[in-house]
Amino acid sequence: MKKRTPHPTLAVTGGTGFVGQHLIRIAREAGHPVRALTRAWRPPEEGVEWVEGTLGRSDTLHRLCEGADVVIHIAGMINGPNRAAFEAVNAGGTAAMVDAARAAGVRRFIHISSLSAREPSLSDYGWSKAKSERIVAASGLDWTTIRPPAIYGPGDRETLELFKMARRGLVALPPAGRFSIIHVEDLCRLILNVVPADDSLAETYEPDDGVPGGWGHRHFARTLGRAFGRRPATLALPRLVLNGVAGIDRLVRGSKAKLTRDRVRYFCHPDWVAASEKRPPPSLWSPQIRTPGGLRATADWYRSEGWIK
Predict the structure, then answer these.
(1) Cα distance between residue 23 and residue 119, in whole Å
(2) Among candidate residues 258, 274, 272, the one with its CA nearest the CA of residue 204
(3) CA dist 20 to 55, 60, 275, 293, Å?
(4) Residue 93: which domain range?
(5) How does DSSP classify residue 53?
(6) With 80 as the cut, is the pLDDT of residue 249 above it?
């Protein structure tokens, strides 16, 4: 491993996405120089060197890693047309980043996976993330894998529909089950905390907001409603109905559909609670943002930006 510096240089994929943008901001505030991959030209920013390219271009990935101390691999596909598409981006892109890190002599590799990797048979997305984890584990690098649960916070478009439903007063839910959640800033703090942590090498962490046993769907919906001063009605939809809604969403929004049949399969799984034995140790990290307050702040952000009227 390279000689450690107080503020190692970070090579980040997915830096233009929801989590990546927050990570870069917090990393810069902490004094880390950042190199970040971008598909399109971006104006210069203090403390950030943008490297134009994609996960499919090995030359740009090598440029991204050159001179870096740590790779933080966030980029991935959430919605895809089929298993092959998920595999190409989530598994193939991870393999390409591993190769680029090794070629550039970067030993430290932090992989942002998904809690869905725990149940790879449920969805093509989860299957591809599980495969990406195996690639990282076999890389020979000094790796840590983080499996976030549902992530929310200012700027997120994936949970925006849920906030809109709560604002309208009716929240449609999957069948009965429980899940964990985490604020994006807490997740980013964990990512940065594991950078120098030797005890985190070869570990797979499942962080959450600290609520034991996670959230029941109805309890969460009502907590979210309070962010708008409402007590929303809740409607649990069976899987058959959700599949129908997914088909309509696909017809209306095409590749931009937020609800796909692949997502329905894992939404309907009853247990997406972070495993207690895989939570990061308190000496490394603990969540700082309580979910009720985090939801209120996120709702306020959506309204201030005009995303929710």
Answers:
(1) 27
(2) 274
(3) 15, 18, 24, 22
(4) 10-151+181-208+275-285
(5) -
(6) no
The reply to whether 241 falls in a domain is no
CA–CA gap between residue 35 and residue 271 (Å, rounded)? 37
* Residue 134 is assigned to a structural domain of this protein: yes
Task: Summarize pLDDT for 148-170 with one digit per residue, the tens.
Answer: 999 999 999 999 999 999 999 99
pLDDT band for position 21 (50/70/90)?
A: very high
3-state secondary structure 132-178: HHHHHHCCCCEEEEECCCEEECCCCCCCHHHHHHHHHCEEEECCCCE
CA atoms within 13 A on the CB side of 302: 24
DSSP state of 254: G
Q: What 3-state DSSP class applies to 299? A: helix
CATH code of the domain covering residue 32: 3.40.50.720
Helices 160-168 + 291-304 axis angle, to 10: 90
Q: How many domains does the chain have?
A: 1
Sheet holding 10-13, edge to edge: 48-52, 34-38, 10-13, 70-73, 108-112, 142-146, 203-205
Q: How far apart are CA 98 and CA 139, in angstroms?
A: 7
Tokens read off for 259: 């609800």
Is residue 294 a part of any domain in this protein? no
Measured distance CA(246)–CA(290) in Å, rounded: 31
Nearest of 254, 250, 275, 252 to residue 264 by alpha carbon: 250
Provide the pLDDT for residue 239.
76
**pLDDT (tens digit per residue) in 171-196:** 988 888 999 999 999 999 999 999 99
Contacts of 254 (CB under 8 A, 6+ apart): none
Tens digit of each residue's pLDDT (9 = 90 or more) over 43-80:
888 999 999 999 999 999 999 999 999 999 999 999 88
Is 20 a domain residue? Answer: yes
